[in-house]
From TrEMBL:
Organism for this UniProt entry: Rheinheimera riviphila
GO biological process, one term: protein transport by the Tat complex
Main location: membrane
Lineage: Bacteria, Pseudomonadati, Pseudomonadota, Gammaproteobacteria, Chromatiales
Listed name of the protein: Sec-independent protein translocase protein TatA
Protein location: Cell membrane
Pfam family, one: TatA_B_E
Amino acid sequence: MGFGGISIWQLLIILVIIVLLFGTKRLRNIGTDLGSAIRGFRSSLKDGEADAAEDATFAAEARKDPAVANNQTTAGQSAAVQPTAEAKPASTTTQNTSGSDKV
């Protein structure tokens, strides 16, 4: 007995049928795509762990020195609260240039 009641011979027959249906070139492309997807997933996990470690380091520094956290928040707040340019008031008189309005 093999995997859950499936013998090795049955697995080989299934493999031969799959190769005949899809062809070796398409199976190779599927394998390459799957491998690159797994590599991308692993690298994103590593990047996420690095970001989490960086955040933990910043949090530890902020607990030791509150001025570090205050400098970060005030810099972020000052960028968000910059004054906007004042809009010019709209003209109170309008001119009708079409000439269709006769009084």
